[in-house]
Amino acid sequence: MSQPVKVSVEDIKRLREETGAGVMDCKRALEQAGGDFEKAKEFLRAAGLLKAEKKSGRVAREGVIACYIHHGNRLGAMVELNCESDFVARTPEFQQLAQEIAMQVAGMNPQYISREDVPEEVVVKQKRLFYEKAIADGNSPEDAEKIAEERLAKFFEEVCLLEQACIRDDSKTVGELLKEKIALFGENIVVRRFVRFVVGEE
User: Fold this and answer.
1) pLDDT at position 113, please?
2) How far apart are CA 99 and CA 92, in angstroms?
3) Which domain holds residue 96?
């Protein structure tokens, strides 16, 4: 049986600073990864997302309301971001997350929080329009159905906040960002509601 790789205190400290994971979790991840720092981060990320899935059903009634006003004061957004405890709600990291999501709402103008919030009649109408357009473009009914499904998925990515690419890091969606933060804070985090204002718009 192979001996676990010895890891330095400096590496553990660095990994903890970069991921927010506990000391023992960082030590285990580095040992598992054979001392490979990037692999260790991946192990922690995978483990954290698994924990996040388990926490996603828990009640979140604490939180903050964050506002973002764009330069020129003609565009703004408000977001209610909930967590499980007042302790987490008061942390600078949680408040920064709420601020980032308010900025996302202002910049990307989502219409819904998640695809589950999109009314069924809207989904049906959009899919029919995509299908009819594909047929008009000369596609067979089978191909038109596939094209309509692909365009509907793209539609969800545009109108649903959790499916939008983060404006600060487009390698992840807002939903994936929330899962990372759930793993980091150890609490469920939920976008409860949002509103976006533009001067002159009704």
Assistant:
1) 95
2) 10
3) 62-114+160-198
